[in-house]
Known about the structure:
Layout: H1 2-20, E1 36-37, E2 40-41, E3 48-49, E4 57-62, H2 68-84, E5 88-93, H3 98-107, E6 118-119, H4 124-128, E7 136-140, E8 146-150, H5 157-164, H6 187-193, H7 195-198, E9 203-208, E10 219-224, E11 229-238, H8 239-247, E12 260-263, H9 279-286, E13 287-295, H10 300-315, E14 317-333, E15 352-353, H11 356-364, E16 372-374, E17 384-385, H12 393-401, E18 405-421
Parallel strand pairs: 4-5, 5-6, 12-18, 14-16
Antiparallel strand pairs: 1-3, 2-6, 4-7, 7-8, 9-13, 10-11, 11-13, 14-18, 15-17
Amino acid sequence: MRITLVVLLAISLLGADSALSQYRKIEIGEALGEISFDQLLNSKKPIITHQDFKEKVVIFSFWSTYCSTCIADMPKMEALQRKFGNQLMILLISDQPRAQIEKFWKRNHITETISLPTVVEDERMQQHFEHLGVPYEVWLDPKGIVRGKTTGQYVNEKNIQALLDGKKVDWPVKKDLQAKYDFKKPMLQNTLERENERRSKYIVSILPSIKGIIQKFASGHIKDSLTQTGRFYAINYSILDLYRSVLSSNPSMGNARNRIVVKSKDSSRFFYDREKTYLEDWREQHNFCLEVVYPLTSPWKQMQGKLLADLNMAFNLDGRMEKTEVDCWIIEKMKDAKQEPQLYSGKLQRTVFGDIATLVNAVNYQTDHIPLLDESGVHDLLRIQLSNGFNSFEDLKADLRRYGLDLKRGKRMLDMFVLIEQ
């Protein structure tokens, strides 16, 4: 018997829920379709239908007796209705009981002078056009297409005439955020869940590291043509690597990791010292996650500037690109070389670099290595094999000479990213 009772109750509740949500939500750009209103007050007709809207601009003005702004707007709407005549129809809509509306209408000094019809005890339109606060204005063009959901401030002669003239309108959509806003969730999560906001807003989050994610598999730049948004993220990156990831598309930086100058009293924020702590402990404390969602209508270069400003603020740093004179190692072509550089042939080995650019990139990827520049003018594929790596100037110089190349020390003005602790 108990089981039967539970089943019947469940069916009853499902049926009730279905009845309460039987009308679809209608968005801007969609047609209202067939509809009729028979719960009317102050109307010359017992029933108003979609046929009465043909070739007119229609404004559904949602209101309530407790909304002083709604009532104060009624004389303005009455005047607009008289001015535009049969080209306009303003229909007031309330979900309050008929008896309550009738009593208020007769006693209020403003409503008693208003001839506009009002729908009472409405349920359907509340579901078609979900909202929390009033006044709330829904606009139809003369073809019956929803063109706006606005505040009462937009109800004026200029905007009505624009729809009558068939002009495209782009009014801000009135959104009752609190109706869908979950105050128990973080603000960022709430914001990202509102898809329309993502299409037009720049949203950035900088959070502590996440355990269990390997850094090299947790970064990317995704562009979504459907929502017209870009998403850039870097998970579990050190402060320096966050700056590098933002600067990576800068032609002056590229993949170079030795183009950043750090001026700080506490270097442990930026560099791991194996003599002081375990690597995992350091990462947990000094790694962070970065995510930015931005409109594709904004160039990525512009977004880079914003991101750098956000990183500076989050970490209390002053990071900027500067032309700086820097000690460098410079590769040149030997003037008195007896042989041309050896062209590449055969398979590459682990100790071999296919060309000078590959060697330069490998050296400059080392954070603690002096910048290496290529001024040789040689762009052929070479089979450069190093005898003892590239940390020793003399060893690298000797290796390069076998290919008709020389290595010199010098100073150059380079684009460096300077990071100063505030």
